[in-house]
């Protein structure tokens, strides 16, 4: 019986069975192989801290408003957005796809999925299907690098070395930057160094901004990308960049952002603070770049060896153990990077 992960309430995960829906002529049925777990957006749903779960998002005015019914309510049936699978059946009108092909996309933590033909994205022949789980989070990271407007030879500081931060560090280096990576967790710093960062700093060991200024002859970084969603990291990113340089706020800040002293370096150094968020690409490139292109690029760059993301996988857990995995992530396991739910042959 097909099964999906269901969030009945804060920190209350369960499984829900559903029937195999009939297949339309332009549809394909997919059996899930791997589903990545996001320690950002998904945990905010799991904890109930996501703003969509407390307020209503007014699409017309693009404002969050207080409301009796939030935009997202329980039960949540859309957990998961990093999936890879295998086609097991195609509709009568589908001529260019076949059973056995590996595909990737966003369909949630579920054993099976029916997709419209035009929504199916095929993995490169012979590729490890796990590269597909990085299509969406990879697009988030690439979008942040685009927003940073990196030039070859730039010094770029990346704050936060979770999964998106690790991808940002690799993509910035591939764009020609010298990358200084920052995170309080030693294992994450070691991973960043192993995957190409020039230096990795512990923010608890001293002022990152002062170290970066010293490394650059007093100038400061050409850009900083904040990926942790921690206000103190954003404050230090603002301090670390050069005059009129750019800071990209890519992390998902929840609640107040206390500790931002905007009358200090931000004001006196004319720092550009830019938000990067996957619902929109960099405006200046929007006539060339789109979310589908970012997804496809994240997969292609892995297949070509430009990005090496499989080492970011720190745990592969059977689908039925998902509740225990979420509990572990909720407790804040510092050594966990990309965790993955796996689906057996009976999925």
Topology:
Elements: E1 3-9, E2 12-17, E3 27-37, H1 41-47, E4 56-58, E5 63-65, E6 83-90, E7 102-105, E8 112-116, E9 121-122, H2 135-148, E10 155-159, H3 163-174, E11 178-182, H4 186-194, E12 199-201, H5 208-215, E13 221-226, H6 231-240, E14 241-249, H7 265-268, E15 272-275, H8 291-303, E16 313-318, H9 322-331, E17 338-342
Parallel strand pairs: 10-11, 10-13, 11-12, 13-14, 14-15, 16-17
Antiparallel strand pairs: 1-2, 3-6, 3-8, 3-17, 4-5, 6-7, 7-9
Helix pairs in contact: 2-3, 2-8, 5-6
Task: Describe the protein's architecture and organization.
Helix content is 25%, strand content 27%. It has helices at 41-47, 135-148, 163-174, 186-194, 208-215, 231-240, 265-268, 291-303, 322-331, and strands at 3-9, 12-17, 27-37, 56-58, 63-65, 83-90, 102-105, 112-116, 121-122, 155-159, 178-182, 199-201, 221-226, 241-249, 272-275, 313-318, 338-342. Strands 3, 6, 7, 8, 9, 16 and 17 form a seven-stranded mixed sheet that branches. A six-stranded parallel sheet has the order 12-11-10-13-14-15, with helices on both faces. Helix 4 links the parallel strand 11 (178-182) and strand 12 (199-201). The mean pLDDT is 95.
